[in-house]
Amino acid sequence: MAFKLIFWAILVSFACIDAQKSQCDLNKFRTSNIVPTLIAAVPPNSIQIEYKDQPVICGDSLTRNLTHERPTSTDYKADVNKLYTLIMLDPDVPTPQNPVAAFFVHWLLENIPENAVKHGDIVLDYYPPNPPLHSDPHRYIFLAYEQPARLKDQFDHDKRIYFNLRKFVEERKLTGPIAGNFFYLK
Fold first, then answer.
1. Which stretches are annotated as coiled coil (predicted)?
2. Which pLDDT score is estimated for 154?
3. Which pairs count as long-range contacts for 34-37, CB under 8 Å and 24+ apart, including other chains?
4. Residue 71 CB: number of other CB atoms within 10 A?
5. CA of residue 125 relative to chain centroid, distance
6. Which of 2, 4, 18, 114 is most buried, by CB atoms within 10 Å?
7. In the predicted model, is pLDDT for residue 18 greater than 70?
8. Does residue 142 contact residue 182 with C-beta atoms inside 8 Å?
């Protein structure tokens, strides 16, 4: 009997730790002025992101060293029969007070089966966050969109900067964002 209690206590502890690890207060999309300024609505789900096994919780501050390599893990709620687009962007280029060059795309993948990011088509390779040293912290936003079908790479690869998110979503007939997350970096 004691063994069963200990077993269940350990199991519940791991479940709680896992739940804490993936929690993301999506309301921070509003308080950080992402909604309605950059996207129309708060995503219904969060994207669980890890850099070097450190989870990204919505609105956390991360370091350049931690984000130098692409995320080691990216997960979101997805339909097994659908394809998805994942985008990481910076809306604060060159500074949050004067974002005249926004958006800057740091990472773009299309045709992701379910949430298997490693099997998606890389449209733009990961470009690590690198805000100017004199700048206030930048927001780095991850958004996942559902695709209507397999997409052909028709992206202008010179358009990392001055990226128009609304036009991109509209032209590709994407639905969402279905999930999101973000962090700050100075």
1. none
2. 73
3. 34/91, 34/139, 34/141, 34/182
4. 21
5. 15
6. 114
7. no
8. yes
Both tokens assigned to 44 = 């219904």
Stronger pLDDT, 6 or 43, i.e. the higher one:
43
Q: Which of 53, 46, 44 lies closest to 22 in space, CA to CA?
A: 46
C-beta of residue 177 within 8 angstroms of C-beta of residue 34? no
Please answer whether residues 87 and 122 qualify as being in contact, where contact means their C-beta atoms are separated by less than 8 angstroms.
no
Tokens at 181, concatenated: 């997350």
158-185: pLDDT as tens digits = 789 999 999 999 999 999 999 999 999 9
CA-wise closest residue to 92 among 80, 79, 101, 81 = 101
* Cα 144-149-87 angle, rounded to 5 deg: 20
CA–CA gap between residue 122 and residue 57 (Å, rounded): 25
- Distance between CA atoms of 89 and 75, rounded to whole angstroms? 17
173 to each of 133, 168, 177, how far by Cα in Å?
37, 8, 12
Looking at residue 119, the DSSP 8-state letter turns out to be G
CB 182 within 8 A of CB 141: yes
Residue with tokens 């063994």: 3
Six-digit token string for 163: 């990226």
CB 127 within 8 A of CB 90: no
Q: How far apart are CA 31 and CA 139, in angstroms?
A: 12
